[in-house]
Amino acid sequence: MNGNHTSHEPSPHHDADPGAVIPALDRHVLERTAAHLHERFARVADRPTVDRILAESYREMDRRATVKTYLPLLAGHFADSQLRSLGIAQGIIESPLPRVLFIDDANAGRSQMAASLLLKHSAGRITARSAGLAPAGHLYEDAVAVMAEIDVPLDHAYPKPLSVDVHRAAQHVVTLGCAGQVEQLTGQHYRDWDIPNFVGRSLEDIRAMRDDLERRVLDLMREIGVPADAGSGDGQAAGRADGRREHPPLSMSA
């Protein structure tokens, strides 16, 4: 049932890196998280596979995050996303909503903003995720600031690497200036948006890029066939989009 993803590797309460020391509290949280994930995704993966994915997620978050206070929580969210995507790709989990994945270099600005804008304007009628080819340790402060200006908080967003399963589970993939670095899978629709990296840009430039992203997101929704929610302000960033929809709490059903 699990294909090549089944691997009898150490559970997440063992060190993911032989040289790393995982705090005792983190070990305890990871163990409970692994049990919960296995209960939720038992049809998708066996316990050793869940343990492996969670351990890899923790290691990835630990390697990249600049603030390590919530590493087990971030690892749990990332592992949850991975397992859900694996289930969708395998046809075990039904996902009737259109699935869009935004990819850029660092997953610290453009892709996060695009996913949040899509969630806002679709009012939950489209699934949006984002990922980076080389994720940064945190979101760009200016990106968070310009989104807060239009009442679209990115408080719960965090940079994530592009995983094979998340890529496979997507139906529509939007690359942001990195099309040549992303493999194009059969049966998926790809677009590349030429919006430059935010590094070194002024706040005014990033506001203009935000507005450009919003226009493109609305155009994408029309192409997919999902009209913008009437309460979201078609063509204007108004109202609230909860970026947490991209990272659902572990208690939500798959």
TrEMBL record:
Keywords: Arsenical resistance. Residues 228-240 have a biased composition (Low complexity). Residues 1-17 have a biased composition (Basic and acidic residues). SMART domains: LMWPc. It comes from the Bacteria. Pfam families: LMWPc, Phosphatase-like_N. InterPro entries: Phosphatase-like_N (IPR048716), Ptyr_pPase (IPR023485), Ptyr_pPase_sf (IPR036196). Residues 98-223 form the Phosphotyrosine protein phosphatase I domain. Residues 1-20, 228-254 are annotated as: Disordered. This is Low molecular weight phosphatase family protein. It comes from Citricoccus nitrophenolicus. The lineage of its organism: Bacteria, Bacillati, Actinomycetota, Actinomycetes, Micrococcales.
